[in-house]
Design a protein that fits this description.
By secondary structure, the protein is of the alpha+beta class. Helices cover 40% and strands 12% of the residues. It is built from five helices and four strands; from the N terminus they run H-H-E-H-E-E-E-H-H. A hairpin with a 7-residue loop joins strand 2 and strand 3. It is globular, with a radius of gyration of 18 Å. About 12% of the residues have low confidence.
């Protein structure tokens, strides 16, 4: 058996995938959905060669979790009013791990798939072309983020992008 075939068999073994999906459901997904700032789009990248059964399971877990959560809290700009808060937009993106053109370090695939080519397709807030910045973070299925992570990152970008002397603006 070829080495790449052995890697694929190990990567997509049902036992391994079930374990990784359980980590995702227990750790990663709640840490993302519990962000204090819900103004973001989360693109979950899954390998297009993942077995259909596990792709469906991932999709069901995300959709059920989004449906079952009550997004109630302070509406933006209001100190007293409590009401429904829009949940974050979640997109499950199938990518080809064998495609050498796709590089997660570059944003071309995000711009092409979810911004430039999104006319007529409801892909959430990312598609309306009003955003000056795309902020990305790579996390694995067993990783968690602090509940204020999105808020802190967005505040940092806003602060540094408005300050011409900020070290992050020096080229």
């Amino acid at each position: 058996m070829k080495t790449t075939q052995k890697k694929t068999n190990k990567l997509f073994s049902p036992t391994r995938l079930d374990k990784r999906i359980s980590y995702f459901k227990k750790f990663c997904l709640p840490s993302i959905l519990n962000q204090t700032n819900k103004n973001f789009t989360w693109i979950i990248a899954i390998d297009k060669y993942m077995p259909e059964k596990h792709k469906l399971k991932m999709s069901q877990i995300v959709n059920n979790e989004l449906k079952n959560r009550k997004y109630i809290g302070r509406m933006r700009g209001s100190r007293r009013n409590k009401g429904r808060i829009k949940p974050p937009t979640v997109i499950i993106h199938e990518w080809d791990s064998k495609d050498k053109e796709i590089n997660f370090g570059r944003l071309r695939w995000i711009r092409e798939k979810y911004i430039t080519l999104s006319e007529g397709v409801d892909t959430g807030d990312i598609s309306d072309n009003k955003y000056k910045y795309i902020i990305t973070t790579r996390i694995d299925d067993d990783d968690c983020l602090h509940r204020d992570f999105v808020n802190m990152i967005q505040n940092y970008v806003q602060l540094t992008s408005s300050n011409p002397k900020s070290p992050s603006r020096i080229k």
